[in-house]
Design brief:
Order of helices and strands of chain B: EHEHEEEHHHHHHEEHEEEEEEEHHH
Strand order of the largest sheet of chain A: 2-1-5-3-4
Distance between the termini of chain B: 51 Å
CATH architecture of the largest domain in chain A: Roll
Number of domains of chain A: 2
Largest sheet of chain A: 5 strands, mixed
Largest interface: A-B, 31 and 29 residues
Structural class of chain A: alpha+beta
Radius of gyration of chain A: 17 Å
Number of helices of chain B: 12
Helix content of chain B: 25-40%
Oligomer: heterodimer
Structural class of chain B: alpha+beta
Number of domains of chain B: 3
Number of strands of chain A: 5
CATH class of the largest domain in chain A: Alpha Beta
Shape of chain B: globular
Strand content of chain A: 5-15%
CATH topology of the largest domain in chain A: Ubiquitin-like (UB roll)
Largest sheet of chain B: 5 strands, antiparallel
Strand content of chain B: 25-35%
CATH architecture of the largest domain in chain B: 2-Layer Sandwich
Strand order of the largest sheet of chain B: 4-5-10-6-7
Shape of chain A: globular
């Protein structure tokens, strides 16, 4: 067994797990944090996306032991009982999700993207979410939700067209 | 996953000691984007898994006397954001950007991409076109070799079970060498290359010099198209010659026919990819 201590959503949590346990399995089965979803289990779908030291990763591809000592953020850390996180609010307002299974991963990828503090174009947003699959929505509403969340949180505007595309057209 | 023992060294010496102790029933884990999936599907326990993701020696990008040194544990995301790569080997950024998607680029490493040694690896062509070398650490010390020798076959490299890949070095004379990269996939994100390609050359007195053309996903390992290179080498720069070299490159590759793309389609991608990367290198050369 491997003793793994994580700081999950600001709280120190420890579990003793077999070495072959993924971070996702530890979060879901040992820490009862079932927000991150088990989808494809091979790193294709992004339903298990969590932030490790601020970086978006597939929790299904990381062994729990590799995350030992690191800071983990999951969807459970975003909202309080009283209030949604601005990303969740934006997703709700545009009805970004249908079945919702991809939602926690989409929202955590969005958080990692906005936390970087870079100016974003629509193309960059699409690129940043290309590791998160959704089988319901066709993505349009999700991208709208990310744009609204980004504009709400940063006070910036996503340009209507990618400035680089506009430049090459001119 | 079958049960295994897990070791997490924090120094390369400790990592090498663990490899020596448990070899050959030992495997190295770093980013895990490929190997953890393999572990999940594996029928047999690897015995001991040595996690090298905490080795600082593997994480730096720096200029040395030999050239630009990129630690094997550097992630694709780190490559994309690093000023030394942008300055000296910008084609590597394009290649890194085509790997998987954000989450896999955040985990996956340059060394992992090379060691896994699948024909469709996205890091291989640019590095081959820039004559990259690799440093291998083992019980007898370190050894260096050309990246082209490091690739042995599908999922097979020159690494012994008790060795690890330390870094990749782009030689000083090739820093800033004009280069281009292209990847053809079925879509932009999360796609394996149907064909990828990189070209690099200098223009001196209006002539092609030190031409390198590297192709991926068209043979068991990433390969150089040396006949196509020879078409250009020392000749006056012209679009006609670029077109001819691209046609010659097709004859050098042996692409497979599978559910992702037919052999004919891959052949046509080889021609287009070779031509476009040569043109990109020419544009870079013309500044």
């Amino acid at each position: 067994m491997t003793d793994v201590t994580l700081t999950v959503n600001g709280e120190e949590r420890t579990a003793s797990v077999p070495p072959e346990t993924t971070l996702l399995k530890m979060l879901r089965e040992d820490l009862n944090l079932t927000g991150a979803k088990l989808g494809c289990d091979v790193g294709d779908c992004g339903a298990c996306t969590v932030l490790v030291d601020g970086i978006a990763v597939n929790a299904c591809l990381m062994l729990a032991g590799q995350a030992d000592g690191k800071k983990i953020e999951t969807i459970e850390g975003l909202s309080t009982l009283e209030e949604y996180h601005p990303i969740q609010k934006a997703f709700e307002e545009v009805a970004a999700l249908q079945c919702g299974f991809c939602g926690p991963g989409m929202i955590m990828s969005t958080k990692a993207l906005i936390d970087q503090g870079e100016d974003l174009s629509k193309q960059e947003i699409k690129d940043a979410l290309s590791g998160n699959l959704c089988r319901c929505t066709g993505y349009t509403k999700i991208i709208d939700g990310v744009i609204d969340a980004y504009e709400d949180i940063t006070g910036k505007k996503v340009p209507e067209t990618n400035p680089r595309e506009a430049q090459s057209a001119a | 996953m079958k049960p295994f023992d897990f070791v997490q060294p924090t120094t390369t010496d400790a990592a090498l000691a663990a490899l020596a102790e448990h070899s050959p029933n030992v495997r190295i884990l770093c980013g895990g984007t490929d190997y953890v999936v393999e572990l999940k599907h594996g029928e047999q326990s690897p015995g001991v898994v040595v996690d090298i993701s905490r080795l600082e020696d593997l994480k730096s990008i720096e200029l040395t006397d030999a050239g630009l040194r990129i630690g094997a544990g550097v992630t694709h995301t780190e490559i994309m954001a690093h000023p030394l790569i942008a300055e000296h080997a910008p084609a590597m950024i394009e290649a890194a950007h085509t790997v998987g998607a954000v989450q896999t680029r955040n985990l996956g490493t340059l060394g992992g991409n090379l060691v896994t040694c699948v024909p469709s690896m996205d890091s291989g062509p640019v590095l081959l076109a820039l004559d990259a070398q690799v440093t291998i650490l083992g019980p007898k010390g370190s050894r260096q070799m050309d990246l082209s020798e490091f690739f042995v076959g599908v999922r097979k490299t020159a690494l012994e079970p008790d060795e690890l890949l330390l870094d990749v070095i782009i030689p000083t004379e090739n820093l800033g060498k004009p280069a281009g990269f292209i990847k053809f996939g079925l879509r932009k994100g999360q796609a394996l290359a149907l064909v990828n390609a990189a070209s690099a050359f200098r223009v001196e007195d209006g002539k092609f010099k030190d031409v390198r053309i590297a192709l991926g996903a068209v043979a068991p390992v990433v390969m150089r198209a040396s006949k196509a290179e020879a078409v250009l080498e020392g000749q006056a720069v012209s679009q006609d010659l670029i077109d001819e070299a691209a046609k010659i490159a097709v004859g050098e590759a042996k692409p497979i026919d599978d559910f992702r793309a037919s052999k004919e389609y891959r052949n046509s991608l080889i021609e287009v990819g070779t031509r476009r990367t040569l043109q990109a290198a020419l544009e870079a050369a013309n500044g």
